[in-house]
Amino acid sequence: MFEKLNRFIKSFNFLKAFVLAFSMITPILISNAVLNDISVGFSIALGVLFCSPTDVPGSLKHKFYGTLMAIFLSFSLTFLFGAIAYNNWMLVSALGIVVFLVSYLSVFGFRASLISFAGLLAITLSFAYDSSQMTLLTHALLVALGGFWYLILSMSASLLLPKIQTDQLFVSIIEKTSEFLKVRGELLVCKTNREVLYHKMFELQTQINESHESIREIILSKRTNSGFSNRTRRQQLLFSELIEILELAVSNPVNYEQFDTVFIEHTEKIEVFKKLNFEIANQLEHISKVIRKEATLKPTTKILEILEEIQENIEYYRVSVGLPKSRIGTLMLINLKNYQEKQVQSLIGIERVLGNYISNNKILGIKDASRFITPQDYDLNKIIENFSFKSPIFKHSLRLAIIVVVGFFIGNLFSMQNPYWILITIIVIMRPSYGLTKERSINRVIGTLIGAAIATIIILITQNTIIYGVIAIVSLPLAFSLIQTNYRNAAIFITLNVIFVYAILDPNILSVVKFRIIDTLIGAALSFGAIYFLWPAWQFQNIQEYFIETIQSNCNFLKQIDIYYHKKGEVPTVYKLSRKKAFLAIGNLNAAFQRMNQDPKSKQKEFAVIYEL
Protein backbone atom coordinates (compact mmCIF):
# COMPACT_ATOMS: atom_id res chain seq x y z
CA MET A 1 0.00 0.00 0.00
CA PHE A 2 2.76 2.45 1.00
CA GLU A 3 4.74 1.53 -2.14
CA LYS A 4 1.74 2.26 -4.38
CA LEU A 5 1.12 5.58 -2.64
CA ASN A 6 4.78 6.52 -2.97
CA ARG A 7 4.74 5.67 -6.69
CA PHE A 8 1.54 7.67 -7.17
CA ILE A 9 3.02 10.78 -5.53
CA LYS A 10 6.22 10.49 -7.63
CA SER A 11 4.34 9.87 -10.88
CA PHE A 12 4.21 12.31 -13.79
CA ASN A 13 0.39 12.34 -13.61
CA PHE A 14 0.52 13.54 -10.01
CA LEU A 15 3.16 16.17 -10.85
CA LYS A 16 0.99 17.47 -13.68
CA ALA A 17 -2.09 17.42 -11.43
CA PHE A 18 -0.19 19.27 -8.69
CA VAL A 19 0.92 21.98 -11.14
CA LEU A 20 -2.65 22.26 -12.42
CA ALA A 21 -4.18 22.44 -8.93
CA PHE A 22 -1.52 24.93 -7.77
CA SER A 23 -2.09 27.16 -10.80
CA MET A 24 -5.87 27.13 -10.17
CA ILE A 25 -5.89 27.54 -6.38
CA THR A 26 -3.15 30.21 -6.13
CA PRO A 27 -4.97 33.00 -8.04
CA ILE A 28 -8.18 32.29 -6.10
CA LEU A 29 -6.38 32.57 -2.75
CA ILE A 30 -4.49 35.72 -3.80
CA SER A 31 -7.68 37.26 -5.18
CA ASN A 32 -9.49 36.57 -1.92
CA ALA A 33 -6.63 37.85 0.26
CA VAL A 34 -5.87 41.03 -1.72
CA LEU A 35 -9.25 41.99 -3.19
CA ASN A 36 -11.51 40.23 -0.70
CA ASP A 37 -13.26 38.79 -3.76
CA ILE A 38 -12.62 35.46 -5.48
CA SER A 39 -14.22 36.37 -8.83
CA VAL A 40 -10.92 37.57 -10.35
CA GLY A 41 -9.10 34.44 -9.20
CA PHE A 42 -11.99 32.27 -10.37
CA SER A 43 -11.76 33.69 -13.92
CA ILE A 44 -8.01 33.04 -14.00
CA ALA A 45 -8.58 29.50 -12.66
CA LEU A 46 -11.05 28.87 -15.50
CA GLY A 47 -8.35 29.83 -18.03
CA VAL A 48 -5.99 27.34 -16.37
CA LEU A 49 -8.63 24.61 -16.55
CA PHE A 50 -9.38 25.27 -20.23
CA CYS A 51 -5.72 24.92 -21.28
CA SER A 52 -4.82 21.92 -19.12
CA PRO A 53 -6.11 19.19 -21.50
CA THR A 54 -3.41 20.06 -24.06
CA ASP A 55 -0.64 19.25 -21.54
CA VAL A 56 0.06 15.66 -22.63
CA PRO A 57 3.32 13.74 -23.25
CA GLY A 58 5.11 14.91 -26.36
CA SER A 59 7.63 17.44 -27.58
CA LEU A 60 7.78 20.83 -25.86
CA LYS A 61 7.19 22.54 -29.21
CA HIS A 62 3.87 20.77 -29.80
CA LYS A 63 2.84 21.30 -26.18
CA PHE A 64 3.65 25.04 -26.43
CA TYR A 65 1.72 25.71 -29.63
CA GLY A 66 -1.15 23.47 -28.55
CA THR A 67 -1.57 25.47 -25.33
CA LEU A 68 -1.41 28.77 -27.26
CA MET A 69 -4.24 27.57 -29.49
CA ALA A 70 -6.25 26.57 -26.41
CA ILE A 71 -5.71 30.06 -24.93
CA PHE A 72 -6.93 31.70 -28.14
CA LEU A 73 -10.03 29.49 -28.29
CA SER A 74 -10.78 29.99 -24.58
CA PHE A 75 -10.62 33.77 -24.85
CA SER A 76 -12.61 33.98 -28.09
CA LEU A 77 -15.37 31.57 -27.09
CA THR A 78 -15.74 33.00 -23.57
CA PHE A 79 -16.19 36.48 -25.05
CA LEU A 80 -18.52 35.32 -27.83
CA PHE A 81 -20.96 33.41 -25.64
CA GLY A 82 -20.85 36.04 -22.92
CA ALA A 83 -21.79 38.70 -25.49
CA ILE A 84 -24.86 36.84 -26.80
CA ALA A 85 -25.97 35.35 -23.48
CA TYR A 86 -29.10 37.51 -23.29
CA ASN A 87 -30.40 36.71 -26.78
CA ASN A 88 -31.79 33.17 -26.48
CA TRP A 89 -32.36 32.57 -30.20
CA MET A 90 -28.91 33.77 -31.14
CA LEU A 91 -27.42 31.82 -28.21
CA VAL A 92 -29.04 28.53 -29.19
CA SER A 93 -28.06 28.93 -32.85
CA ALA A 94 -24.48 29.82 -31.97
CA LEU A 95 -24.31 26.98 -29.44
CA GLY A 96 -25.17 24.33 -32.05
CA ILE A 97 -22.98 25.75 -34.82
CA VAL A 98 -19.89 26.58 -32.73
CA VAL A 99 -19.97 23.28 -30.81
CA PHE A 100 -20.00 21.46 -34.15
CA LEU A 101 -17.12 23.53 -35.57
CA VAL A 102 -14.96 23.28 -32.44
CA SER A 103 -15.56 19.53 -32.13
CA TYR A 104 -14.79 19.12 -35.85
CA LEU A 105 -11.21 20.32 -35.21
CA SER A 106 -10.55 16.73 -34.09
CA VAL A 107 -10.09 15.74 -37.75
CA PHE A 108 -6.53 17.09 -37.40
CA GLY A 109 -5.48 14.39 -34.92
CA PHE A 110 -5.02 13.68 -31.24
CA ARG A 111 -3.54 16.98 -30.08
CA ALA A 112 -6.13 18.89 -32.11
CA SER A 113 -8.84 16.91 -30.34
CA LEU A 114 -7.44 18.12 -27.00
CA ILE A 115 -7.49 21.72 -28.21
CA SER A 116 -11.06 21.06 -29.35
CA PHE A 117 -11.95 19.80 -25.87
CA ALA A 118 -10.47 22.97 -24.34
CA GLY A 119 -12.77 25.00 -26.61
CA LEU A 120 -15.80 22.94 -25.63
CA LEU A 121 -15.00 23.48 -21.94
CA ALA A 122 -14.81 27.23 -22.57
CA ILE A 123 -18.22 27.17 -24.28
CA THR A 124 -19.98 25.29 -21.48
CA LEU A 125 -18.37 27.21 -18.62
CA SER A 126 -19.10 30.55 -20.29
CA PHE A 127 -22.57 30.06 -18.77
CA ALA A 128 -21.00 30.36 -15.31
CA TYR A 129 -20.04 34.01 -16.03
CA ASP A 130 -21.72 36.51 -13.69
CA SER A 131 -21.97 39.96 -15.29
CA SER A 132 -22.53 41.59 -11.90
CA GLN A 133 -18.98 40.71 -10.81
CA MET A 134 -16.97 42.22 -13.70
CA THR A 135 -17.22 43.25 -17.36
CA LEU A 136 -17.21 40.56 -20.02
CA LEU A 137 -13.97 41.78 -21.59
CA THR A 138 -12.22 41.74 -18.21
CA HIS A 139 -13.48 38.20 -17.57
CA ALA A 140 -12.29 36.99 -21.00
CA LEU A 141 -8.88 38.65 -20.57
CA LEU A 142 -8.48 37.04 -17.14
CA VAL A 143 -9.32 33.67 -18.70
CA ALA A 144 -6.53 34.26 -21.25
CA LEU A 145 -4.21 35.34 -18.41
CA GLY A 146 -4.96 32.05 -16.64
CA GLY A 147 -3.97 30.20 -19.79
CA PHE A 148 -0.63 32.00 -20.01
CA TRP A 149 -0.07 31.47 -16.27
CA TYR A 150 -0.55 27.72 -16.72
CA LEU A 151 1.62 27.71 -19.86
CA ILE A 152 4.51 29.27 -17.90
CA LEU A 153 4.18 26.81 -15.00
CA SER A 154 3.72 23.77 -17.27
CA MET A 155 6.69 24.60 -19.51
CA SER A 156 8.83 25.41 -16.44
CA ALA A 157 8.01 22.05 -14.88
CA SER A 158 8.88 20.28 -18.14
CA LEU A 159 12.20 22.11 -18.45
CA LEU A 160 13.22 21.81 -14.79
CA LEU A 161 12.14 18.16 -14.40
CA PRO A 162 12.66 16.66 -17.89
CA LYS A 163 13.44 13.17 -16.59
CA ILE A 164 10.12 12.54 -14.84
CA GLN A 165 7.91 12.42 -17.93
CA THR A 166 10.30 10.26 -19.98
CA ASP A 167 11.08 7.87 -17.12
CA GLN A 168 7.37 7.46 -16.34
CA LEU A 169 6.67 6.64 -19.99
CA PHE A 170 9.46 4.05 -20.00
CA VAL A 171 8.15 2.51 -16.78
CA SER A 172 4.63 2.39 -18.24
CA ILE A 173 5.84 0.70 -21.44
CA ILE A 174 7.97 -1.83 -19.54
CA GLU A 175 5.14 -2.75 -17.15
CA LYS A 176 2.63 -3.14 -19.98
CA THR A 177 5.14 -5.17 -22.01
CA SER A 178 5.64 -7.41 -18.98
CA GLU A 179 1.89 -7.92 -18.66
CA PHE A 180 1.68 -8.55 -22.42
CA LEU A 181 4.29 -11.34 -22.19
CA LYS A 182 2.49 -12.90 -19.22
CA VAL A 183 -0.74 -13.03 -21.22
CA ARG A 184 1.12 -14.77 -24.06
CA GLY A 185 2.48 -17.24 -21.53
CA GLU A 186 -1.02 -17.92 -20.18
CA LEU A 187 -2.33 -18.48 -23.72
CA LEU A 188 0.12 -21.37 -24.16
CA VAL A 189 -1.47 -23.48 -21.42
CA CYS A 190 -4.98 -22.05 -20.95
CA LYS A 191 -7.72 -23.84 -22.88
CA THR A 192 -10.90 -22.42 -21.34
CA ASN A 193 -10.95 -18.61 -21.58
CA ARG A 194 -8.57 -17.90 -24.45
CA GLU A 195 -10.88 -15.28 -25.99
CA VAL A 196 -10.66 -13.16 -22.84
CA LEU A 197 -6.87 -13.44 -22.93
CA TYR A 198 -6.79 -12.62 -26.65
CA HIS A 199 -8.78 -9.44 -26.07
CA LYS A 200 -6.53 -8.48 -23.18
CA MET A 201 -3.45 -9.07 -25.33
CA PHE A 202 -4.83 -6.91 -28.16
CA GLU A 203 -5.75 -4.16 -25.71
CA LEU A 204 -2.26 -4.16 -24.17
CA GLN A 205 -0.68 -4.11 -27.62
CA THR A 206 -2.73 -1.03 -28.50
CA GLN A 207 -1.72 0.73 -25.28
CA ILE A 208 1.95 -0.11 -25.82
CA ASN A 209 1.79 1.24 -29.39
CA GLU A 210 0.32 4.52 -28.13
CA SER A 211 3.07 4.84 -25.50
CA HIS A 212 5.69 4.05 -28.16
CA GLU A 213 4.38 6.95 -30.26
CA SER A 214 4.61 9.37 -27.33
CA ILE A 215 8.12 8.39 -26.33
CA ARG A 216 9.31 8.25 -29.94
CA GLU A 217 8.29 11.87 -30.36
CA ILE A 218 10.12 12.95 -27.19
CA ILE A 219 13.37 11.06 -27.84
CA LEU A 220 13.68 11.80 -31.55
CA SER A 221 12.75 15.45 -31.04
CA LYS A 222 15.65 15.73 -28.58
CA ARG A 223 17.91 13.92 -31.04
CA THR A 224 16.92 16.23 -33.90
CA ASN A 225 17.14 19.46 -31.90
CA SER A 226 20.20 18.94 -29.71
CA GLY A 227 22.07 15.87 -30.93
CA PHE A 228 23.15 12.96 -28.76
CA SER A 229 23.69 13.33 -25.05
CA ASN A 230 24.71 10.35 -22.94
CA ARG A 231 21.17 10.14 -21.56
CA THR A 232 19.59 10.37 -25.03
CA ARG A 233 21.85 7.54 -26.22
CA ARG A 234 20.67 5.35 -23.34
CA GLN A 235 17.04 6.20 -23.98
CA GLN A 236 17.30 5.36 -27.66
CA LEU A 237 19.01 2.03 -26.95
CA LEU A 238 16.40 1.16 -24.33
CA PHE A 239 13.55 2.19 -26.61
CA SER A 240 14.95 0.11 -29.49
CA GLU A 241 15.04 -3.02 -27.33
CA LEU A 242 11.48 -2.46 -26.07
CA ILE A 243 10.22 -2.04 -29.63
CA GLU A 244 12.07 -5.21 -30.58
CA ILE A 245 10.33 -7.19 -27.80
CA LEU A 246 6.87 -6.14 -28.99
CA GLU A 247 7.59 -6.56 -32.70
CA LEU A 248 9.15 -9.98 -32.16
CA ALA A 249 5.97 -11.06 -30.38
CA VAL A 250 3.67 -9.63 -33.06
CA SER A 251 5.69 -11.14 -35.91
CA ASN A 252 5.88 -14.56 -34.22
CA PRO A 253 2.24 -15.51 -33.64
CA VAL A 254 1.62 -18.87 -31.97
CA ASN A 255 -1.07 -21.27 -33.16
CA TYR A 256 -2.24 -22.20 -29.67
CA GLU A 257 -4.93 -24.60 -30.86
CA GLN A 258 -2.34 -26.54 -32.86
CA PHE A 259 -0.14 -26.76 -29.76
CA ASP A 260 -3.15 -28.18 -27.86
CA THR A 261 -3.60 -30.87 -30.51
CA VAL A 262 0.03 -31.85 -31.05
CA PHE A 263 1.00 -31.84 -27.35
CA ILE A 264 -2.22 -33.18 -25.85
CA GLU A 265 -0.22 -35.92 -24.09
CA HIS A 266 2.88 -33.81 -23.46
CA THR A 267 1.54 -30.64 -21.82
CA GLU A 268 4.58 -30.42 -19.54
CA LYS A 269 6.68 -29.54 -22.61
CA ILE A 270 4.60 -26.37 -23.00
CA GLU A 271 4.47 -25.41 -19.32
CA VAL A 272 8.20 -24.66 -19.33
CA PHE A 273 7.70 -22.08 -22.12
CA LYS A 274 5.09 -20.35 -19.97
CA LYS A 275 7.61 -20.35 -17.12
CA LEU A 276 10.17 -18.65 -19.40
CA ASN A 277 7.65 -16.01 -20.47
CA PHE A 278 6.85 -15.25 -16.85
CA GLU A 279 10.53 -15.06 -15.88
CA ILE A 280 11.22 -12.57 -18.70
CA ALA A 281 8.16 -10.58 -17.58
CA ASN A 282 9.28 -10.63 -13.95
CA GLN A 283 12.70 -9.35 -14.93
CA LEU A 284 11.08 -6.52 -16.88
CA GLU A 285 9.10 -5.60 -13.76
CA HIS A 286 12.39 -5.58 -11.82
CA ILE A 287 13.86 -3.27 -14.48
CA SER A 288 10.90 -0.90 -14.08
CA LYS A 289 11.72 -0.72 -10.36
CA VAL A 290 15.34 0.06 -11.24
CA ILE A 291 14.20 3.02 -13.36
CA ARG A 292 11.97 4.14 -10.47
CA LYS A 293 15.09 3.90 -8.25
CA GLU A 294 13.33 1.36 -6.04
CA ALA A 295 15.86 -1.41 -6.68
CA THR A 296 19.42 -2.14 -7.84
CA LEU A 297 19.78 -3.96 -11.14
CA LYS A 298 20.30 -7.70 -10.68
CA PRO A 299 20.46 -9.83 -13.84
CA THR A 300 18.53 -13.07 -13.46
CA THR A 301 20.21 -16.47 -13.79
CA LYS A 302 16.92 -18.40 -13.94
CA ILE A 303 16.32 -17.59 -17.61
CA LEU A 304 19.39 -19.47 -18.83
CA GLU A 305 18.43 -22.43 -16.63
CA ILE A 306 14.93 -22.50 -18.12
CA LEU A 307 16.35 -22.34 -21.66
CA GLU A 308 18.51 -25.37 -20.89
CA GLU A 309 15.45 -27.15 -19.52
CA ILE A 310 13.55 -26.33 -22.74
CA GLN A 311 16.37 -27.75 -24.87
CA GLU A 312 16.36 -30.95 -22.80
CA ASN A 313 12.58 -31.22 -23.19
CA ILE A 314 12.85 -30.86 -26.97
CA GLU A 315 15.43 -33.63 -27.17
CA TYR A 316 13.41 -35.87 -24.86
CA TYR A 317 10.22 -35.29 -26.90
CA ARG A 318 11.99 -36.00 -30.20
CA VAL A 319 13.47 -39.28 -28.91
CA SER A 320 10.50 -40.52 -26.88
CA VAL A 321 7.88 -39.90 -29.56
CA GLY A 322 10.21 -40.93 -32.37
CA LEU A 323 10.53 -39.87 -35.99
CA PRO A 324 8.64 -39.20 -38.21
CA LYS A 325 5.78 -38.70 -35.73
CA SER A 326 7.72 -36.18 -33.62
CA ARG A 327 8.88 -34.07 -36.57
CA ILE A 328 6.06 -31.46 -36.54
CA GLY A 329 6.06 -31.12 -32.74
CA THR A 330 9.85 -30.83 -32.59
CA LEU A 331 9.88 -28.07 -35.22
CA MET A 332 7.13 -26.20 -33.34
CA LEU A 333 9.13 -26.37 -30.10
CA ILE A 334 12.37 -25.32 -31.81
CA ASN A 335 10.68 -22.35 -33.52
CA LEU A 336 9.12 -21.22 -30.25
CA LYS A 337 12.46 -21.59 -28.47
CA ASN A 338 14.26 -19.58 -31.17
CA TYR A 339 11.71 -16.76 -30.83
CA GLN A 340 12.01 -16.67 -27.05
CA GLU A 341 15.82 -16.70 -27.23
CA LYS A 342 15.56 -13.49 -29.27
CA GLN A 343 13.34 -12.01 -26.56
CA VAL A 344 15.98 -12.95 -23.99
CA GLN A 345 18.64 -11.18 -26.09
CA SER A 346 16.52 -8.01 -26.07
CA LEU A 347 16.14 -8.32 -22.29
CA ILE A 348 19.91 -8.67 -21.93
CA GLY A 349 20.28 -5.59 -24.14
CA ILE A 350 18.07 -3.60 -21.74
CA GLU A 351 20.13 -4.79 -18.76
CA ARG A 352 23.31 -3.76 -20.56
CA VAL A 353 21.92 -0.27 -21.22
CA LEU A 354 20.94 0.20 -17.57
CA GLY A 355 23.95 -1.54 -16.06
CA ASN A 356 27.23 -1.70 -17.93
CA TYR A 357 26.58 1.01 -20.48
CA ILE A 358 29.78 2.89 -21.30
CA SER A 359 30.56 5.64 -23.76
CA ASN A 360 32.23 3.18 -26.13
CA ASN A 361 28.97 1.32 -26.68
CA LYS A 362 28.01 2.57 -30.09
CA ILE A 363 24.64 3.48 -31.42
CA LEU A 364 24.30 4.82 -34.91
CA GLY A 365 22.70 8.22 -35.33
CA ILE A 366 19.30 8.00 -36.93
CA LYS A 367 19.24 9.42 -40.41
CA ASP A 368 16.26 11.70 -40.96
CA ALA A 369 15.19 11.22 -37.34
CA SER A 370 12.27 13.62 -37.75
CA ARG A 371 10.71 11.27 -40.34
CA PHE A 372 10.12 8.67 -37.62
CA ILE A 373 7.94 11.08 -35.63
CA THR A 374 4.31 10.80 -36.65
CA PRO A 375 3.64 14.23 -38.18
CA GLN A 376 0.88 16.57 -37.04
CA ASP A 377 -1.18 16.72 -40.24
CA TYR A 378 -2.93 20.09 -40.47
CA ASP A 379 -3.80 19.94 -44.16
CA LEU A 380 -6.98 21.99 -44.64
CA ASN A 381 -8.18 19.46 -47.21
CA LYS A 382 -8.97 17.16 -44.28
CA ILE A 383 -11.87 19.49 -43.42
CA ILE A 384 -13.44 18.90 -46.84
CA GLU A 385 -12.56 15.18 -46.99
CA ASN A 386 -14.25 14.46 -43.66
CA PHE A 387 -17.35 16.58 -44.30
CA SER A 388 -19.69 13.64 -44.88
CA PHE A 389 -21.54 10.97 -42.93
CA LYS A 390 -18.76 8.53 -43.84
CA SER A 391 -16.51 10.30 -41.34
CA PRO A 392 -16.87 9.25 -37.66
CA ILE A 393 -15.59 12.71 -36.59
CA PHE A 394 -18.26 14.49 -38.67
CA LYS A 395 -21.01 12.31 -37.18
CA HIS A 396 -19.65 12.79 -33.66
CA SER A 397 -19.45 16.59 -34.06
CA LEU A 398 -23.01 16.81 -35.39
CA ARG A 399 -24.30 14.45 -32.69
CA LEU A 400 -22.52 16.43 -29.96
CA ALA A 401 -23.88 19.76 -31.22
CA ILE A 402 -27.47 18.48 -31.23
CA ILE A 403 -27.27 16.90 -27.76
CA VAL A 404 -25.62 19.97 -26.23
CA VAL A 405 -28.51 22.10 -27.52
CA VAL A 406 -31.02 19.54 -26.17
CA GLY A 407 -29.22 19.53 -22.80
CA PHE A 408 -29.31 23.35 -22.75
CA PHE A 409 -33.09 23.34 -23.34
CA ILE A 410 -33.68 20.72 -20.63
CA GLY A 411 -31.57 22.60 -18.10
CA ASN A 412 -33.46 25.84 -18.68
CA LEU A 413 -36.90 24.25 -19.06
CA PHE A 414 -36.73 22.60 -15.65
CA SER A 415 -34.89 25.54 -14.04
CA MET A 416 -31.86 23.53 -12.91
CA GLN A 417 -29.62 25.20 -10.35
CA ASN A 418 -26.58 25.07 -12.67
CA PRO A 419 -27.82 23.96 -16.15
CA TYR A 420 -24.31 24.06 -17.60
CA TRP A 421 -23.42 21.01 -15.46
CA ILE A 422 -25.50 18.96 -17.90
CA LEU A 423 -23.45 20.35 -20.80
CA ILE A 424 -20.14 19.63 -19.05
CA THR A 425 -21.24 16.04 -18.41
CA ILE A 426 -22.11 15.64 -22.10
CA ILE A 427 -18.82 16.96 -23.50
CA VAL A 428 -16.76 14.96 -20.98
CA ILE A 429 -18.62 11.68 -21.52
CA MET A 430 -19.42 11.66 -25.24
CA ARG A 431 -16.81 10.10 -27.51
CA PRO A 432 -16.97 9.03 -31.18
CA SER A 433 -17.15 5.32 -30.23
CA TYR A 434 -20.02 3.58 -28.46
CA GLY A 435 -17.83 1.51 -26.12
CA LEU A 436 -15.87 4.43 -24.66
CA THR A 437 -19.01 6.57 -24.25
CA LYS A 438 -20.78 3.73 -22.46
CA GLU A 439 -17.80 3.09 -20.17
CA ARG A 440 -17.37 6.77 -19.29
CA SER A 441 -21.12 7.19 -18.70
CA ILE A 442 -21.17 4.34 -16.20
CA ASN A 443 -17.99 5.47 -14.44
CA ARG A 444 -19.16 9.09 -14.32
CA VAL A 445 -22.52 8.17 -12.77
CA ILE A 446 -21.00 5.74 -10.23
CA GLY A 447 -18.23 8.20 -9.30
CA THR A 448 -20.70 11.06 -8.91
CA LEU A 449 -23.03 8.98 -6.70
CA ILE A 450 -20.15 7.82 -4.46
CA GLY A 451 -18.72 11.35 -4.25
CA ALA A 452 -22.16 12.79 -3.43
CA ALA A 453 -22.72 10.15 -0.72
CA ILE A 454 -19.33 10.91 0.89
CA ALA A 455 -20.01 14.65 0.70
CA THR A 456 -23.47 14.26 2.27
CA ILE A 457 -22.05 12.28 5.19
CA ILE A 458 -19.37 14.94 5.80
CA ILE A 459 -21.96 17.75 5.58
CA LEU A 460 -24.21 16.01 8.10
CA ILE A 461 -21.26 15.53 10.48
CA THR A 462 -19.82 19.05 10.30
CA GLN A 463 -20.61 22.51 8.91
CA ASN A 464 -17.02 23.74 9.29
CA THR A 465 -16.06 25.72 6.16
CA ILE A 466 -12.33 25.24 6.89
CA ILE A 467 -12.79 21.46 6.56
CA TYR A 468 -14.78 22.05 3.37
CA GLY A 469 -11.94 24.17 1.96
CA VAL A 470 -9.29 21.58 2.82
CA ILE A 471 -11.31 18.80 1.17
CA ALA A 472 -11.89 20.96 -1.94
CA ILE A 473 -8.17 21.77 -2.25
CA VAL A 474 -6.93 18.20 -1.63
CA SER A 475 -9.50 16.57 -3.93
CA LEU A 476 -8.52 18.74 -6.91
CA PRO A 477 -5.01 17.31 -7.63
CA LEU A 478 -6.23 13.81 -6.79
CA ALA A 479 -9.03 14.16 -9.35
CA PHE A 480 -6.75 15.44 -12.12
CA SER A 481 -4.06 12.82 -11.45
CA LEU A 482 -6.58 9.96 -11.77
CA ILE A 483 -8.46 11.08 -14.90
CA GLN A 484 -6.27 9.07 -17.30
CA THR A 485 -5.93 5.94 -15.17
CA ASN A 486 -9.18 5.56 -13.22
CA TYR A 487 -12.03 7.76 -14.44
CA ARG A 488 -14.53 6.51 -11.84
CA ASN A 489 -12.27 7.49 -8.92
CA ALA A 490 -11.48 10.77 -10.65
CA ALA A 491 -15.24 11.46 -10.85
CA ILE A 492 -15.50 10.87 -7.09
CA PHE A 493 -12.90 13.55 -6.32
CA ILE A 494 -14.26 15.95 -8.97
CA THR A 495 -17.69 15.67 -7.30
CA LEU A 496 -16.19 16.27 -3.86
CA ASN A 497 -14.29 19.31 -5.16
CA VAL A 498 -17.34 20.86 -6.85
CA ILE A 499 -19.68 20.24 -3.90
CA PHE A 500 -17.34 21.63 -1.25
CA VAL A 501 -16.42 24.69 -3.35
CA TYR A 502 -20.13 25.46 -3.51
CA ALA A 503 -20.48 24.53 0.18
CA ILE A 504 -18.23 27.47 1.07
CA LEU A 505 -20.35 29.86 -1.03
CA ASP A 506 -23.88 28.45 -0.64
CA PRO A 507 -25.39 27.49 2.73
CA ASN A 508 -28.03 25.28 1.02
CA ILE A 509 -25.42 22.67 0.16
CA LEU A 510 -27.70 19.61 0.10
CA SER A 511 -29.57 21.25 -2.76
CA VAL A 512 -26.26 21.49 -4.64
CA VAL A 513 -25.65 17.75 -4.04
CA LYS A 514 -29.14 16.91 -5.34
CA PHE A 515 -28.78 18.94 -8.53
CA ARG A 516 -25.24 17.65 -9.11
CA ILE A 517 -26.61 14.09 -9.18
CA ILE A 518 -29.61 15.01 -11.35
CA ASP A 519 -27.51 16.96 -13.87
CA THR A 520 -25.01 14.10 -14.14
CA LEU A 521 -27.77 11.53 -14.71
CA ILE A 522 -29.40 13.71 -17.39
CA GLY A 523 -26.08 14.36 -19.15
CA ALA A 524 -25.10 10.67 -19.06
CA ALA A 525 -28.53 9.56 -20.35
CA LEU A 526 -28.43 12.08 -23.21
CA SER A 527 -24.88 11.05 -24.17
CA PHE A 528 -25.63 7.35 -24.13
CA GLY A 529 -28.88 7.79 -26.07
CA ALA A 530 -27.18 9.96 -28.69
CA ILE A 531 -24.32 7.57 -29.36
CA TYR A 532 -26.81 4.74 -29.89
CA PHE A 533 -29.51 6.46 -31.94
CA LEU A 534 -27.97 9.48 -33.70
CA TRP A 535 -25.82 8.30 -36.63
CA PRO A 536 -23.96 5.69 -34.56
CA ALA A 537 -20.42 4.91 -35.74
CA TRP A 538 -20.37 1.11 -35.46
CA GLN A 539 -16.91 -0.30 -36.07
CA PHE A 540 -18.05 -2.87 -38.67
CA GLN A 541 -18.80 0.10 -40.95
CA ASN A 542 -15.18 1.25 -41.26
CA ILE A 543 -12.94 -1.56 -40.02
CA GLN A 544 -12.22 -2.48 -43.65
CA GLU A 545 -10.18 0.74 -43.90
CA TYR A 546 -7.87 -0.56 -41.17
CA PHE A 547 -7.52 -3.89 -43.00
CA ILE A 548 -6.63 -2.09 -46.22
CA GLU A 549 -4.06 0.08 -44.43
CA THR A 550 -2.55 -2.96 -42.69
CA ILE A 551 -2.29 -5.02 -45.89
CA GLN A 552 -0.83 -2.14 -47.91
CA SER A 553 1.74 -1.23 -45.25
CA ASN A 554 2.82 -4.87 -44.87
CA CYS A 555 3.10 -5.24 -48.65
CA ASN A 556 5.35 -2.20 -48.72
CA PHE A 557 7.43 -3.61 -45.83
CA LEU A 558 7.90 -6.90 -47.68
CA LYS A 559 9.02 -5.00 -50.81
CA GLN A 560 11.61 -3.13 -48.75
CA ILE A 561 12.85 -6.43 -47.29
CA ASP A 562 13.22 -7.78 -50.83
CA ILE A 563 15.14 -4.69 -51.96
CA TYR A 564 17.44 -4.81 -48.93
CA TYR A 565 18.28 -8.50 -49.37
CA HIS A 566 19.26 -7.90 -52.98
CA LYS A 567 21.22 -4.68 -52.47
CA LYS A 568 22.75 -5.45 -49.02
CA GLY A 569 24.80 -2.71 -47.37
CA GLU A 570 23.51 -0.36 -44.68
CA VAL A 571 19.86 -0.68 -43.71
CA PRO A 572 18.14 2.28 -45.47
CA THR A 573 15.82 4.73 -43.72
CA VAL A 574 12.94 3.82 -46.02
CA TYR A 575 13.17 0.21 -44.80
CA LYS A 576 12.97 1.31 -41.14
CA LEU A 577 10.05 3.63 -41.88
CA SER A 578 8.12 0.92 -43.70
CA ARG A 579 8.71 -1.44 -40.76
CA LYS A 580 7.42 1.16 -38.30
CA LYS A 581 4.31 1.84 -40.40
CA ALA A 582 3.56 -1.87 -40.79
CA PHE A 583 3.60 -2.54 -37.06
CA LEU A 584 1.66 0.63 -36.26
CA ALA A 585 -0.98 -0.37 -38.82
CA ILE A 586 -1.35 -3.74 -37.10
CA GLY A 587 -1.69 -1.93 -33.78
CA ASN A 588 -4.38 0.37 -35.22
CA LEU A 589 -6.26 -2.66 -36.55
CA ASN A 590 -6.14 -4.25 -33.10
CA ALA A 591 -7.51 -1.02 -31.58
CA ALA A 592 -10.37 -0.96 -34.11
CA PHE A 593 -11.17 -4.59 -33.28
CA GLN A 594 -11.23 -3.77 -29.57
CA ARG A 595 -13.71 -0.96 -30.23
CA MET A 596 -15.84 -3.34 -32.27
CA ASN A 597 -15.79 -5.83 -29.40
CA GLN A 598 -17.29 -3.09 -27.18
CA ASP A 599 -20.19 -2.43 -29.57
CA PRO A 600 -23.59 -4.08 -28.88
CA LYS A 601 -23.66 -7.73 -29.98
CA SER A 602 -26.28 -6.94 -32.65
CA LYS A 603 -23.84 -4.45 -34.24
CA GLN A 604 -20.84 -6.79 -34.35
CA LYS A 605 -21.47 -7.94 -37.91
CA GLU A 606 -19.08 -10.52 -39.39
CA PHE A 607 -17.37 -10.59 -36.00
CA ALA A 608 -16.15 -14.19 -36.31
CA VAL A 609 -14.61 -13.56 -39.74
CA ILE A 610 -12.94 -10.34 -38.59
CA TYR A 611 -11.67 -12.10 -35.46
CA GLU A 612 -10.00 -14.80 -37.59
CA LEU A 613 -8.47 -12.24 -39.93
Protein model, in words:
This protein is mostly helical and 613 residues long. α18 (434-461) packs across α20. It has helices spanning 2-10, 12-35, 39-51, 60-83, 88-104, 110-125, 136-160, 162-189, 194-226, 230-251, 256-262, 268-291, 302-321, 327-354, 381-385, 392-413, 420-429, 434-461, 465-482, 487-505, 509-533, 543-567, 573-598, 607-612. The protein has 24 helices and no strands.
* Tally of strands: 0
Separation, N- and C-terminal Cα atoms: 43 Å
Q: Strand-residue fraction?
A: under 5%
Instruction: Provide the low-confidence segments as ranges.
Output: 224-228, 357-367
Shape: elongated
Written as H for each helix and E for each strand, in order along the chain, the element string is HHHHHHHHHHHHHHHHHHHHHHHH
Helix-and-strand structural type: mainly alpha
How large is the count of helical segments?
24
- What's the pLDDT, averaged over the residues? 82
Topology of helices and strands:
Blueprint: H1 2-10, H2 12-35, H3 39-51, H4 60-83, H5 88-104, H6 110-125, H7 136-160, H8 162-189, H9 194-226, H10 230-251, H11 256-262, H12 268-291, H13 302-321, H14 327-354, H15 381-385, H16 392-413, H17 420-429, H18 434-461, H19 465-482, H20 487-505, H21 509-533, H22 543-567, H23 573-598, H24 607-612
Helix pairs in contact: 2-3, 2-7, 2-19, 3-6, 3-7, 4-6, 4-7, 5-6, 5-16, 6-17, 8-9, 8-10, 8-12, 9-10, 9-23, 10-14, 12-13, 12-14, 13-14, 16-17, 16-21, 17-21, 18-20, 18-21, 19-20, 20-21, 22-23
